[in-house]
Specification:
With 418 residues, the protein is of the alpha+beta class. It has 13 helices and 18 strands. It has helices spanning 3-9, 12-28, 37-49, 116-132, 154-160, 163-166, 220-238, 276-297, 318-332, 350-355, 369-378, 381-384, 400-416; strands at 53-58, 62-69, 74-80, 99-101, 107-109, 139-146, 172-182, 186-188, 191-194, 196-205, 209-210, 246-254, 260-261, 264-273, 304-311, 314-316, 336-338, 359-367. It has an 8-stranded mixed sheet, with helices on both faces. Strands 12-14-10-15 form a 4-stranded antiparallel sheet, covered by helices on one side. It has a two-stranded antiparallel ribbon with strand order 4-5. α3 (37-49) packs parallel to α4 and α9 crosses α13. The radius of gyration is 23 Å and the shape is elongated. The protein starts with a helix and ends with a helix.
Length: 418
Amino acid sequence: MTDRPHAVLSGLAGIRADLEDLYRDLHSHPELGLREHRTAKRASDALRDCGYEVTERVGGTGVIGVLANGDGPTVMARADMDALPVRERTGLPYASTVTLTGSDGSEQPVMHACGHDVHVTALVGCARLMAAAKDAWRGTFVVLFQPSEENGDGADAMIDDGLTTKSPVPDVVLAQHVLPCPAGYVGTRPGPFLSAADNLRVTVHGRGGHGSMPQSAVDPVVMAATIVVRLQTVVSRELAATTPAVVTVGSIHAGSGPNIIPDSAVLELNIRTYDEATRTQVLAAIERIVRAECVASGAPRAPEFEKTAAFPPTVNDEETTRRVAEAFAAHFGDQAHTIELQTASEDMSEIPGVFGAPFTYWAIGGIDAGLYADAARNGTVARDIPVNHSPAFAPVIQPTLDTGVSAMTVAALAWLGT
């Protein structure tokens, strides 16, 4: 098995320049969730060119490519395609200048601030190598390009559009994400890896009035402020110190002027947890605190709660992850690591879930190794290394792309190459 990755990856040098051009093109032309038409076409065209049976527009813009190569396991590899409403500030010659009309009608800058352009390029590269070296493996290789991961609805959109009837049933599902680690790094983790995420919109009601006469009003701004402060105690005082969780109030909207006490305030929350028990406990604590603060403030109406998005936890199958980790150790040597828990979230696990298939999801690094080493030595990683969703986040092209292509290929061959 150890020489099969070499047999397939020997073709990487011949397509490296094409992949780098594809990456720059995707980075320069980002698209928001469920509008990834151009990205999907680039992916589907690449698959057809090397012999895959392609199904397009699954769940809107999703793409499935199937390459059958005799008897053997069926492996599915997944990449997400969407970008973010962020104005790019990388200064790169291929930086995005794209703006798109948002759901509210306003123009929004768009950027691949999370690295999904890396994911698409790496999977296209893997798909091309697998098609060019069919003598080195047996089975069925399924590649899936998923829309709208950032909104948490892309996997469900593909499922609702009949994913299970449009794709072979996989024996295993594989996925990866570029993170702010040194380029060349690969990191696996059995069990819980990415957190669950819940977004809440909470509306608290007061009684409006003149800013000079607060005694005649019930001030929802003060109410919201006390809620924000009290919510900081959910993690610090209601969970064990060994139980990871995050509660963030990302925005507060209230009022229209300095001398007007408004009728209501809206808080938007993001909650990260790693298991259902903690998730239930934290959400219940948030609701309890909000309701109690409203009562304490004399609110004329009960608060309203709306869940605006939800991501499941990403819990890697232990045996599947062990198999991939061993393959990575054999191929990448001391660049293969065990990675710590991550507080980011994903909807990828919905796809293997609907098939009842085990999965593993790993990380690759995208930061210039020398830059990262300098920051680590100076203790300034948090300050100097841009993270995903930052307007300055831009993985170095190499060795990031080579690592992503190699990692997906080596992982797939851990099944198809046996």
